[in-house]
């Protein structure tokens, strides 16, 4: 009987120490609680065989309970991991899209810088074609100007000849009128 009393006192002391202390992890506290329950179950029985079967039954119950809790924790962790995985995959896809946009922007920038450099150096891309077209245009304009100058000279000569013929015609008319009188 005295051993039973000392065992109960130990159990009460163990319960108080467990409730007062802050357990470091849930696994350690569940093991100590299981140990306490096993001790309680083990001390209540009088025969060894009954204690062994009830202890085995209690142990299997607590093992099943621990397995369920650990499975539940693993499921929660897997859910969190899958959420993180989805977020990571989304971030990677966004990064790839932004990298491709950055590359196209860099290419456009380099093309514009090349154009600017060529323009500043006086070497435009299509400038050679434009220069040839301008040369042809100026040559055709010069030709038209020289043709018009020639036409003006011919026109001035024709005016002078026309005036001479008018004067001659007037002189002939006077001679004819004098002869006819």
Automatic annotation (TrEMBL):
InterPro entries: PP1_Regulatory_Subunit, PRKG1_interact. Residues 19-31, 40-55 have a biased composition (Low complexity). It comes from the Eukaryota. Residues 83-181 form the cGMP-dependent protein kinase interacting domain. Residues 1-58, 114-137 are annotated as: Disordered. The keyword Repeat applies. Keywords: ANK repeat, Coiled coil, Developmental protein, Repeat. One of its GO terms (cellular component) is cytoplasm. Residues 148-175 form a coiled coil. Residues 9-18 have a biased composition (Basic and acidic residues). GO terms for molecular function: enzyme inhibitor activity; phosphatase regulator activity; protein kinase binding. PANTHER family: MYOSIN BINDING SUBUNIT, ISOFORM O (PTHR24179:SF21), PROTEIN PHOSPHATASE 1 REGULATORY SUBUNIT 12 (PTHR24179). This is Protein phosphatase 1, regulatory subunit 12B. It comes from Nothobranchius korthausae. The gene is PPP1R12B.
């Amino acid at each position: 009987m005295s051993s039973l009393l000392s065992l109960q006192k130990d159990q009460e002391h163990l319960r108080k120490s467990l409730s007062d202390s802050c357990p470091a992890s849930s696994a350690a506290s569940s093991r100590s609680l299981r140990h306490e329950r096993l001790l309680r179950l083990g001390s209540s029985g009088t025969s060894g065989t009954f204690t062994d079967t009830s202890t085995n039954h209690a142990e299997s119950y607590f093992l099943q309970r621990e397995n369920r809790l650990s499975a539940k924790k693993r499921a929660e962790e897997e859910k969190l991991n899958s959420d993180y995985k989805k977020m990571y995959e989304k971030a990677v896809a966004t990064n790839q899209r932004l990298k491709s946009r950055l590359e196209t922007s860099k290419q456009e920038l380099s093309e514009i810088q090349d154009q600017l450099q060529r323009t500043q150096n006086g070497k435009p891309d299509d400038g050679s074609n434009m220069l040839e077209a301008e040369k042809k245009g100026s040559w055709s304009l010069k030709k038209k100007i020289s043709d018009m100058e020639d036409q003006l000279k011919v026109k001035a000569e024709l005016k002078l000849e026309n005036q001479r013929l008018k004067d001659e015609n007037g002189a002939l008319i006077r001679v004819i009128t004098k002869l006819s009188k």
